[in-house]
Amino acid sequence: MAASPSTETVIVRRQAKSAPRKLAADICVVGAGIAGITAALQAAKLGRKVILVDSQPSLGGQAVNSIIATFCGLFSNGTHGYQFTYGVADDLLSYLEAHEQAVHYRNGPRTTVVYYDEVTLGRWVETSILGAGVTPILGATIMDARVENDRIASVDFMTRYGAVTVEAEGFIDASGDAALLWQAGFPCREPANHRVFGTQMVVLEHIDEARQPPREEISARMKEKGDQYGLLRREGLGFTIPGRGIAAMNMTHVETPLDPVEASAKALEGKEQASRAVEFLKKEFPECYGNARVRSFGLPGIRQTRWIVGRHHLTVDEIKAQTKFDDAIGRTAWPIELHDHGDGHHWIVFDEDHAHYIPLGSLVSRDCHNVVAAGRCIDADSAALSSVRVMGPCMAMGMAAAHALDLAGSGSVHQIDMDQMRQRVADNVEKQHYRWSETQLAQAVTA
Ligand SMILES: Cc1cc2nc3c(=O)[nH]c(=O)nc-3n(C[C@H](O)[C@H](O)[C@H](O)COP(=O)(O)OP(=O)(O)OC[C@H]3O[C@@H](n4cnc5c(N)ncnc54)[C@H](O)[C@@H]3O)c2cc1C
After folding, report:
1. In this structure, which residue's CA is closest to atom 7 in ligand 1?
2. Nearest alpha carbon, ligand 1 atom 6
3. Complete domains list, the chain, with CATH
């Protein structure tokens, strides 16, 4: 016979001055998106004690929770592009390849993109972080940062379960919004005289893949009839992994202000826009989307808001000129993709043999000795950032941030041994490996 259910309770009361939970690490990574995850895994591989903090109650940042759906900038241009970023990126691709229908390479005439299943990616993130011995602190938002001698000594976070203080030798700002350096009072940049729009992603199920209209046809119809449906953006992108009957639709432009009240209002407006776009698809292309229904909305997709003032301000001219910096830590060939007007975006594609480089100088805060940024908040002009913030180079930045702090130890990230740094990131700057087997190439959709 089953035991009786427990009925006893105890009465508890919050202590008036309960101290925050105190934790210490070698490296504290703030932000668990693709840049922060890569940084945390790389730092753990280097034997460092790592704490990984995120304000969401889950790992994976936008890559998992906003349902971005494809990795861009991870391969060079052309139908047979080589891989740009290795190490942690290899671990990730191998995991996805080992899971049925979790990854699909689309080798286009110019760009190569890697479609992924966000649920499988989420499981890779979780199992890898736990397997590496990293301590995650989830649902924790920065409240304050203590700065001593141009170093961040500790950061206070608030969670739904109480306050946490983390002391560390070095910090990685992978928050996307330079939230750590901003809170610590270091200078940051915001776009002047223009906005960079985000997007509300939506996953549709029950679509008829075989009858999908070309992207250009959807965009032409959006331009023609967008007003009728109340659409702001006039271009439609859909990503499908063949054989699954679902598509991740990227069809909205939503403002992403840094004010808490406005940000919340715009996030809800994004869902309205996405719902209108679904209505448009169902009515205008019923043969493909007539039976579609929304399976999930991603969290608000945020492209560029606020970023650091680094030692180097990466410019669009340097990108076009393929400037190879002495302190290069990664590269990409992704187009300039600047979403600075509501109805569309700038799209400037590069040649097949093009590669542009990201310098360590753009990752290190000019005025701080123990913080390295990684991901979409490094120092660049708006157009340059729009190319290097995609996920392939974000992974290279995460790896480089971990190496730079490992080499700096208790010293300054501005005075590390650059020969050693170059050796550590050499693969991500020089190597040209062609990942695909002949079979994979034959199966890849060319579009
Ligand atoms: C709609 C959309 C579509 C895109 N499409 C593609 C694409 O197809 N392919 C591609 O490669 N790239 C794409 N990009 C770009 C790419 O997704 C992002 O630039 C990239 O994911 C950024 O990664 P990240 O790690 O820098 O930041 P994020 O993924 O934004 O991670 C930052 C993390 O920091 C946390 N955080 C922020 N502030 C705080 C705080 N104060 N305290 C604690 N934690 C905090 C956040 O919760 C978040 O999890 C797209 C972007 C958008 C918005």
Report:
1. 70
2. 68
3. 20-194+303-447 (3.50.50.60), 202-297 (no CATH)
